[in-house]
Amino acid sequence: MLNPLIKKTLQSLTLAIGMTMMVASSHAQSQGNFPNKPIRLIVPFTPGGVTDTSGRLIADQLSKRIGQQVIVENKPGATGNIGSALVANSEPDGYTLVYGFDGTMVVNPHIATSMPFDPIKDFTPIGKIGETVLILVSYPKFEAQTLKDIIELSKQPGKTVTFGSSGIGSPQHVGIELLNQKTGAKLVHVPYKGGGQAMIDVQGGNIPLVFTAVAGAYPHIKAGRIKAVAVSSEKRAPSLPDVPTFIESGVPDFVVSGWVAIFAPAKTPKSVVTYLNNELNAVLKMPDVVAKLEQMGITPTPWTPEKFAAEVKADYERYGKVIKEAGIKAN
Question: Domains in the chain, start-ordered, CATH in brackets?
Answer without folding.
Answer: 37-131+258-326 (3.40.190.150), 133-231 (3.40.190.10)
